[in-house]
Amino acid sequence: MSKKVLVLGETRDGVLRNVSFEAIAAAKKVSAGGEVVGVLLGDSVQSLGAEMIQYGADRVVTVEHEKLKQYTSDGYSQGFMAVCEQENPEAIVFGHTALGKDLSPKIASKLAAGLISDVTEIEGEDDDALFIRPIYSGKAFEKVKHKEGLLFITVRPNNIAALEKDESRSGDVTSVDVDVKDLRTIISEVVRKATEGVDMSEAKVVVAGGRGVRSADGFKPLQELADLLGGAIGASRGACDADYCDYSLQIGQTGKVITPDLYIGAGISGAIQHMAGMSNSKVIVAINKDPEAEIFKVADYGIVGDLFEVIPMMIEEVKKLKV
Ligand code: FAD
Fold first, then answer.
1. CA 244 – ligand 1 centroid, Å
2. In 8-55, which ranges are continuous DSSP H helix?
3. Residue 266 and residue 260: Cα distance in Å, rounded?
4. Does the annotation place 237 within a ligand binding site?
5. Is any atom of ligand 1 closer than 6 Å to the C-beta of 78?
6. Which of 200, 216, 211 minimizes the C-alpha distance to 295?
7. Which terminus of the chain is more exposed, N or C, with fewer CB under 10 A?
8. CA distance 68 to 74
9. For residues 4 and 27, what is the distance between their CA atoms, to the nearest angstrom?
10. Per-residue pLDDT reduced to its tens digit, 68-111
11. 312 pLDDT exceeds 70?
12. pLDDT greater than 90 at residue 199
């Protein structure tokens, strides 16, 4: 049965995040030929509606309010619930991001919907669709079927391919007025601690360093390689604990879960807690001077050697490819 699906468009610094386009592609499958409606919340988001449509949404509904300039779960839930009341959707798709993980349970409970979170693949379409999601820190996958009522899923970034951008697509961008009030949190300032540039959870390439990098300066060659590959830098908790980098870079069970096309881990032993965050990467390259290091068990390509010799060689080779 075809469905009307709402998709939350997530923005950062006034730009739509890639996961929003992946969520639209997931919504297309879920809708089975029904209508995909993008939802944008913020203080000035109207102009982003066209891009959601170019990536596959049929139309877009915005809620603009100065109190939605920064994300708060109270503000966004008031805005999103107002759109739900107007649209009466049969399914909802969010990105499985920090925002999506915070907001989706709140909305799901308000709408008494079951929530299938962290979906990495959708098999089939229609009412028979199976939603595949990792369990036990990525060691196994389960297939979940939606039975009845409002369907609500969150999709893990970098797993469901976005549709090709089609600049000839057009559709309505309308707005809903909401009196956003009674916010229990007010964001007075945002202090960015992570490095500027590519966001690790959406990056196609992540170059991660561990205790083996030995110092904050030891991260410099890794950063250079990441920049050359258009990727992001990441780290093990060993490196964060040693104060070589900020905790916002930590990958793993108590850090970020990433699934880039290419993960390069240097000077990382491969503790189970680290692997919980990266073992589903599409291609894993490990550099370690210990041939017995656990990380080699999940690596597609293992390089036994000193990272301070191997990474500069990789940088040189990548530079040659770019000439
Ligand atoms: P180490 O285990 O010390 O490994 C360093 C590696 O570098 C070694 O294998 C060594 O051979 C290699 N090396 C050294 N010098 C070089 C060189 N010059 N060239 C090449 N290789 C070199 N960890 C996480 O990463 N993420 C988490 O989310 C996380 N959550 C945790 C949660 C809990 C509850 C607990 C208890 C632990 C958690 N940990 C987590 C910590 C985890 O158990 C490990 O301690 C940590 O991952 C080790 O980091 P590491 O691999 O950088 O360091």
1. 13
2. 18-31, 49-54
3. 16
4. yes
5. no
6. 211
7. C
8. 10
9. 9
10. 999 999 999 999 999 999 999 999 999 999 999 999 999 999 99
11. yes
12. no
Mutate to test the pocket of ligand 1, among 207, 240, 249, 268 (most ligand atoms within 8 A of CB): 268
Residue 140 CB burial class (10 angstroms; 0-12, 13-18, ≥19): exposed
Please answer whether residues 111 and 82 qualify as being in contact, where contact means their C-beta atoms are separated by less than 8 angstroms: no
Phi, psi of 164 (to 5 degrees): -60, 140
The structure tokens listed for 94 are 């969010």
CB 28 within 8 A of CB 163: yes
Instruction: Using only the alpha carbons of the chain, give its radius of gyration.
Output: 21
Residue 314: HSE in the Cβ half-sphere, 13 Å Cα cutoff: 24
Q: What is the pLDDT of residues 112-152, one digit of tens each?
A: 999 999 999 999 877 789 999 999 888 899 999 999 999 99
Residue found under tokens 């050697």: 305
Question: Within its chain, how far is the Cα of 133 from the centroid?
Answer: 14
Q: Is the distance from the beta carbon of residue 9 to the nearest atom of ligand 1 less than 6 Å? A: no
- Count of CB atoms situated within 10 Å of the CB of 31: 24
Using CA positions, which residue lies closest to atom 33 of ligand 1? Answer: 273
Q: Which two tokens stand for residue 99?
A: 């925002």
CA angle in degrees (0–180, nearest 5) for 288-227-20: 105
pTM of the prediction?
0.85
H or E segment to which residue 269 belongs: none
What are the tokens at 12?
Answer: 């950062």
Residue 192 annotated as lining a ligand binding site:
no
Q: Name the token pair of 189.
A: 């300032």
CA 209 and chain centroid, separation: 21
In the chain, count H helices and then E strands: 8, 17
Q: By CB neighbour count within 10 A (0-12 exposed, 13-18 middle, 19+ buried), where does 144 fall?
A: middle
d(CA 124, CA 22): 17
pLDDT in tens, 233-263: 999 999 999 999 999 999 999 999 999 999 9
